[in-house]
User: Which sequence fits this backbone?
């Protein structure tokens, strides 16, 4: 595990505050923790899907992706949710069928598609895994208000392309790396089932952050101009912003929230 986490810790600008762990490990925080974790998994899939649709594929291919996401999005927007029915859908419910056609003129579209489709599939699976744990513990799924973390990160995105895409990919890397770091740090304080589950997520989360960085480097390398900013410089800027969000006091407890209020 230490070998897996070493590059994650080196990439992030700070460690999760112990004060966040102290709140997260309390039994009374478990419902909020799992519900927000469940929502985060779905948001991660939706974000990756948005990147593919916006930058890499044609309209018909975009419709195929929306069909893939439809059962998940319909579930979260329903008032009367049947979790058992949702989780017992066909065994191939999480698979994606169809050929995605890359947009002409977008270099590295195939790389973005292949990495993001794999990520989406895994995030949908993680969403279902968390939902099953919640169901077994009689924790009802519910929508929660968004925290400040993702919104704060997106404030760092530049407004011109391809710089905006590069920044979005770097932000995706930080969100995945932070999730990995938090799973690892929190797992020892949880019950055996959740400990095993969170540890089981580490490898995929670590790969996700690396995939995002690989894509950022590819996109940037193809768009080098005199005004281009190296990916390493953007990582440094976004690293500082992410660390500030994690270390500063946060009024709400979320999976990616900052230090809790005293």
Assistant:
């Amino acid at each position: 595990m230490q070998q897996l986490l070493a590059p994650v810790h080196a990439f992030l600008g700070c460690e999760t505050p112990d004060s966040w762990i102290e709140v997260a490990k309390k039994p009374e925080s478990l419902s909020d923790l799992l519900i927000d974790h469940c929502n985060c998994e779905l948001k991660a899939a939706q974000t990756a899907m948005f990147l593919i649709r916006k930058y890499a594929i044609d309209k018909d291919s975009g419709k195929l992706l929306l069909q893939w996401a439809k059962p998940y999005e319909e579930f979260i927007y329903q008032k009367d949710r049947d979790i058992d029915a949702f989780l017992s859908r066909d065994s191939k419910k999480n698979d994606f069928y169809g050929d995605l056609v890359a947009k002409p003129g977008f270099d590295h579209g195939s790389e973005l598609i292949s990495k993001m489709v794999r990520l989406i599939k895994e995030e949908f699976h993680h969403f279902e895994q968390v939902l099953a744990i919640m169901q077994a513990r009689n924790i009802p799924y519910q929508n929660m208000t968004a925290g400040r973390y993702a919104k704060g990160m997106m404030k760092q995105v530049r407004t011109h392309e391809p710089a905006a895409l590069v920044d979005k990919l770097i932000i995706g890397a930080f969100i995945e790396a932070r999730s990995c770091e938090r799973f690892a740090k929190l797992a020892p304080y949880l019950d055996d089932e959740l400990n095993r589950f969170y540890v089981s997520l580490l490898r995929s989360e670590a790969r996700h952050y690396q995939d995002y960085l690989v894509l950022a480097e590819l996109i940037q390398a193809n768009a080098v101009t005199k005004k281009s900013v190296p990916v390493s410089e953007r990582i440094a800027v976004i690293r500082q912003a992410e660390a500030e969000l994690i270390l500063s006091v946060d009024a709400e407890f979320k999976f990616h929230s900052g230090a809790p209020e005293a």
The chain has one domain: 1-260. The chain has a mean pLDDT of 92.
